[in-house]
């Protein structure tokens, strides 16, 4: 079965993609009759060297994303994973020559089709009297024994675009740029890894991987790598990649040693999430610095992809200060990141968090009977929530991500860890304030924020008094805060429904002579009934509001959790005979 792609046609997808890039970038123009994009200010390049690159489409943002002042003059694009036509390459060379440039450098990735087509266009242009040079970039560090074809051109080519662009912008001549670029290319290596393959529009995936396998050392055209390894952690995979890239017995290794200074590129091969990319970047920084390598610059993002391949490549370029200045030089290329000209290694990456206000640190008489009772209540709440984890997750799957139980369990475990540090405050206001901070920090999600809001607001009326009317007022304050910031109302099928129902019953505490347990028992039963009733409600707030009401046949998990918490509180207080 062929993969699904958002295209107009398989045959026209490369043209449409390039046209879209140019349509949205006033600094680019298409060359009529060719799949070529050029700088729109070609006339400003008179007397300077032009830089042309390209290759098959499907590697976006490479290469057209790197057209701009300080990088490429133009790009020739082929069909997906297909070398561009000789006629289009020659047309691009002629176009920049007619603009008054003093020569053209072709920057070509080391693939047979690219070498042949760009090489033939160069020969024809030279026959017409146009000065043209060509550099072939091979930065692949996958192969331990080099074959006749040499190293493949991968993401490191983008760094060559940058270096050559900075030299050309500075007015350096064609021969000198060619010489310097060839030297830089020898001090660079790239290695890729992927969780699965990609698929060319109109075709099936290019290779298959088992669920527990990862492909190491693959190229950027969907071809398989040098070997398959078992799925492992990000740290383990990054270590394996760097070990392979820097192993001196590897004929294509990068000569990185302790004390070396490098530019590091963490490149998304197209389908990796940004979350995973950040994890890989962190692992790479830690691993390199642990080897004594100085990371002078770090570029993290999508630079040269392989369609939707869920993988990543690491590129290391050995640098000195003159080379760093070229990397840091200004460019208007849309896909080049805004990288600070500051070394990564040696930079302070964290700052001390502000101290809590003194009032929050002063807990009163902990360890008394009231404190012990608080601990028992909290322990019962925690055990209740942990026991409901799977049930709440199952209820939550109908509305989306199915993590309500996990979120509440995370809160329960955080509370248990906190209780191990010592007895909780005996002051109800301080207890609720402490729990608020804890849940906001540890629980996560909208539930953590809502409970945090509720507890913060509820603590305020209890600072002066802890009578039954004060507890009723605390419930009112908590509910008001939840509605104000959460935008939910009773009947919206949220945790508020349970709490609101309980709050209405707790109004009775404001009457003289109100009985603690009679009112609280009614409040808990009302909360449980309200939770059950949510299965007949249409969601008006929260993630469930985006789901068709016909699919929501179970009660709201947040409402169920809130009712269960109230039940746990009641049972402990009854057992203690408060």
TrEMBL record:
Listed InterPro entries? DhaK_ATP, DhaK_dom, DhaL_dom, DhaL_dom_sf, Dihydroxyacetone_Kinase
- Ranges for domain DhaK come to 9-336
Q: Which residues form the DhaL domain?
A: 372-571
Q: What Gene Ontology terms for biological process does this UniProt record contain?
A: glycerol catabolic process
One GO cellular component assignment for this chain's record is:
cytosol
Q: Which cofactor does it need?
A: Mg(2+); Mn(2+); Co(2+)
Instruction: List, from the UniProt record, the residues annotated as the active site of this protein.
Output: 221
Keyword terms of this UniProt record: ATP-binding, Cobalt, FAD, Flavoprotein, Kinase, Lyase, Magnesium, Manganese, Metal-binding, Multifunctional enzyme, Nucleotide-binding, Phosphoprotein, Transferase
**Pfam families, per the entry:** Dak1 (PF02733), Dak2 (PF02734)
- Asked if the keyword Lyase belongs to this entry, the reply reads yes
Q: Which reaction does it catalyse?
A: FAD = riboflavin cyclic-4',5'-phosphate + AMP + H(+); dihydroxyacetone + ATP = dihydroxyacetone phosphate + ADP + H(+); D-glyceraldehyde + ATP = D-glyceraldehyde 3-phosphate + ADP + H(+)
For this protein, the Enzyme Commission number is 2.7.1.28, 2.7.1.29, 4.6.1.15
Quick check: keyword Transferase in the entry?
Answer: yes
Q: Origin, by domain of life?
A: Eukaryota
What does the function comment of this entry state? Catalyzes both the phosphorylation of dihydroxyacetone and of glyceraldehyde, and the splitting of ribonucleoside diphosphate-X compounds among which FAD is the best substrate. Represses IFIH1-mediated cellular antiviral response.
Tell me which family the UniProt entry assigns to this protein. Answer: Belongs to the dihydroxyacetone kinase (DAK) family.
Assembly, per entry: Homodimer. Interacts with IFIH1 (via the CARD domains), the interaction is inhibited by viral infection.
What is the name of this protein?
Triokinase/FMN cyclase
Gene name linked to the record: TKFC
């Amino acid at each position: 079965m062929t993969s699904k792609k958002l295209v107009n046609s398989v045959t026209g997808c490369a043209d449409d993609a390039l046209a879209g890039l140019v349509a949205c970038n006033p600094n680019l123009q298409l060359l009529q009759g060719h799949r070529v994009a050029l700088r729109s200010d070609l006339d400003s390049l008179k007397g300077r060297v032009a830089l042309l690159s390209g290759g098959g489409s499907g590697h976006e943002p490479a290469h057209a994303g790197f057209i701009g002042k300080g990088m490429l003059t133009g790009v020739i694009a082929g069909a997906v994973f297909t070398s561009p036509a000789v006629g289009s390459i020659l047309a691009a060379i002629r176009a920049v020559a007619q603009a008054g440039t003093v020569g053209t450098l072709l920057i070509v990735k080391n693939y047979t089709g690219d070498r042949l087509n760009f090489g033939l266009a160069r020969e024809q242009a030279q026959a017409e009297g146009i000065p043209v040079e060509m550099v072939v970039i091979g930065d692949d560090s996958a192969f331990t024994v080099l074959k006749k074809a040499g190293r493949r051109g991968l993401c490191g080519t983008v760094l060559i675009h940058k270096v050559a662009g900075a030299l050309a912008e500075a007015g350096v001549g064609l021969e000198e740029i060619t010489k310097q670029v060839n030297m830089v290319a020898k001090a660079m290596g790239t290695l890729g890894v992927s969780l699965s393959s990609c698929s060319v529009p109109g075709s099936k995936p290019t290779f298959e991987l088992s669920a527990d396998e990862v492909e190491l050392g693959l190229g950027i055209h969907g071809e398989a790598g040098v070997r398959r390894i078992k799925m492992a952690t990000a740290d383990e995979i990054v270590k394996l990649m760097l070990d392979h890239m820097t192993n001196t017995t590897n004929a294509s290794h990068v000569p990185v040693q302790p004390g070396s200074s490098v530019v590091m590129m963490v490149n998304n091969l197209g389908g990796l999430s940004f979350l995973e990319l950040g994890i890989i970047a962190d692992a790479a920084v830690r691993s390199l610095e642990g080897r004594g390598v100085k990371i002078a610059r770090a570029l993290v993002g999508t630079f040269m992809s392989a369609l939707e391949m869920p993988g990543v490549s690491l590129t290391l370029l050995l640098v000195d200060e003159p080379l760093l200045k070229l990397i840091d030089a200004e460019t208007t290329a849309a896909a080049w990141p805004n990288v600070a000209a500051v070394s990564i290694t040696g930079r302070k990456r964290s700052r001390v968090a502000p101290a809590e206000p003194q009032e929050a640190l002063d807990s009163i008489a902990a360890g008394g009977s009231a404190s012990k009772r608080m601990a028992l209540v909290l322990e019962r709440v925690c055990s209740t929530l942990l026991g409901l984890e799977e049930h709440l997750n199952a209820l939550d799957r109908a509305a989306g991500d199915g993590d309500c139980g996990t979120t509440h369990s995370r809160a329960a475990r955080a509370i248990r860890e906190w209780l191990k540090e010592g007895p909780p405050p005996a002051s109800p206001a301080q207890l609720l304030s402490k729990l608020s901070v804890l849940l906001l920090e540890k629980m996560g999600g909208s539930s953590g924020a809502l409970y945090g809001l509720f507890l913060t607001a509820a603590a305020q009326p209890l600072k002066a008094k802890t009578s039954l009317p004060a507890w009723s007022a605390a419930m009112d304050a908590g509910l008001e805060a939840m509605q104000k910031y959460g935008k939910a109302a009773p009947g919206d099928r949220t945790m508020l429904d349970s709490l609101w129902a309980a709050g209405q019953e707790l109004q009775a505490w404001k009457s003289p002579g109100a009985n603690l347990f009679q009112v609280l028992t009614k409040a808990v039963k009302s909360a449980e009934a309200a939770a059950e009733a949510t299965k007949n409600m249409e969601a008006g707030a929260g993630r469930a509001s985006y789901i068709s009401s016909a699919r929501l046949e179970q009660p709201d998990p947040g409402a169920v959790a809130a009712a269960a918490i109230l039940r746990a509180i009641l049972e402990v207080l009854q057992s203690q005979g408060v």
